[in-house]
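Exercise: predict the fold of this chain.
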Amino acid sequence: MRSEHELIVVFKKNISEEDAEKFLSSLGVEYREGMDSSKGKIYFYATGPKYILTFEDTAQKSAFINKRYGFLPEIHQIFEPDWDIRKD
């Protein structure tokens, strides 16, 4: 499912999948693994676990963005996916 209610969260390399999923579960947001298309590229190997977060609506997504999770030391990057760009 691809929608305007999604964000990509990329954790830092030293964060395990278990710790990343524990953090995401604590937020009460639906998530799934994502960004496999970057395998074989420097970015894939320089970063940790990557997930696609799916929100119920724009308000829930905005509330998440406003909490500024991107500044946490475990997070490498949070961004909105652009499903129209082909990367490979």
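Check your answer against the key: The longest helix spans residues 17-27.
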